[in-house]
Amino acid sequence: MPARAHSQALRRFVTRAAGTRHGVLLHGLDVFCLASRREALSLALLEALAHGLPSVTTDVGATAEAVGDAALVVPPEDPAALVEALDAVLADSGLRRRLGAAAFARARREFGAARMVDQMAAVLAGAARTAWASVS
Best exposed site among 50, 82, 92, 117 by fewest CB in 10 Å? Predict the structure, then answer.
């Protein structure tokens, strides 16, 4: 597709997406791309993983650790690597399916509510032990 047609398609998509809830917006994507120069950990990326979206992201902050093998990770400020990764995901439906399934599983395992509750319970139990030890 010529660059002008891509630009027009993107403009139409953004216009339609304005005002749409982000879950609905993410559901309509074929691939999620986060091309950050600086980022601690993007909530948008975690939401994309939770929606099972195949993702391409830059290796900044804790991004690579967060996605593991559930996304393609490229160096920041390397547009050629970003384009190559996006092309690979868009051209290979099998890769999109594998990344999407891995993303959904990783989000559920690493960032799901059950894990958050378990971690919070462990923190509270540790705080209670410390408090009781100081009283004794």
Answer: 117
Write the single-letter amino acid at 25.
Answer: L
d(CA 88, CA 131): 54
Q: How far apart are CA 54 and CA 127, in angstroms?
A: 39
All residues at 6 or more sequence positions from 94 whose CB lies less than 8 Å from its CB, including other chains: none
List, for residues 78-101, the tens digit of each pLDDT value: 999 999 999 999 999 999 999 999
Alpha-carbon distance 88 to 20, whole Å? Answer: 28
- With tokens 């509270």, the residue in question is 124
Q: Can you spell out the DSSP letters for 69-103?
A: TSSEEE-TT-HHHHHHHHHHHHH-HHHHHHHHHHH
pTM given for the model: 0.68
Residues in the chain, pLDDT under 50: 15, 17-20
